[in-house]
Amino acid sequence: MALTKKITYDYEIRTEFRFIQERTRTAIFESGNEISYTYNRRILTPDADVSAESDELKAMANALWTDDIKKAYEDSKKED
Q1: Distances (CA, A) of 77 to 17, 26, 74
Q2: For 15-41, what is each residue's pLDDT tens digit?
Q3: Order of strands across the sheet with 19-30?
Q4: What is the pLDDT of residues 57-72, one digit of tens each?
Q5: Domain limits at 49?
Q6: How many angstroms separate the CA atoms of 77 and 3, rounded?
Q7: CA distance 50 to 30
Q8: Residue 45 · residue 73 · CB < 8 Å
Q9: Cβ(10)–Cβ(60) under 8 Å?
Q10: If residue 66 lies in a helix (H) or strand (E), which one and from where to where?
């Protein structure tokens, strides 16, 4: 009756500013059978500090958040 936990991540890219939506799935297993799971989400915007994030997330942010995207996002915040 050993309990184990498995965490997986998936990502979606949203809006013209390339927001990264991260979904975390945490599953609990008992003797190899999944008995429970939960989802959590968070959204990272082009002005986010990703220096402490996983290498995978940093690579996505660096590829998606060009200087033009960052500037357009900053400009859009001034319009509000």
Answers
A1: 11, 34, 5
A2: 999 999 999 999 999 999 999 999 999
A3: 3-14, 19-30, 33-44
A4: 999 999 999 999 999 9
A5: 3-78
A6: 46
A7: 34
A8: yes
A9: no
A10: none
Count CB atoms within 10 A of the CB of residue 18: 20
Distance separating alpha carbons of residues 58 and 69, to the nearest angstrom: 16
**Cβ atoms of 20 and 13 closer than 8 Å:** yes
Overall domain count for the chain:
1
Give the global pTM.
0.86
Which two structure tokens, joined as six digits, stand for 13?
């890219």
Query: Of 3, 7, 18, whose CA–CA distance to 68 is shortest?
Result: 18
| 63-68 contact pairs (CB < 8 A, 24+) | 64/13, 64/18, 64/20, 65/18
Q: Residue 32 corresponds to which tokens in the numbers above?
A: 């190899």
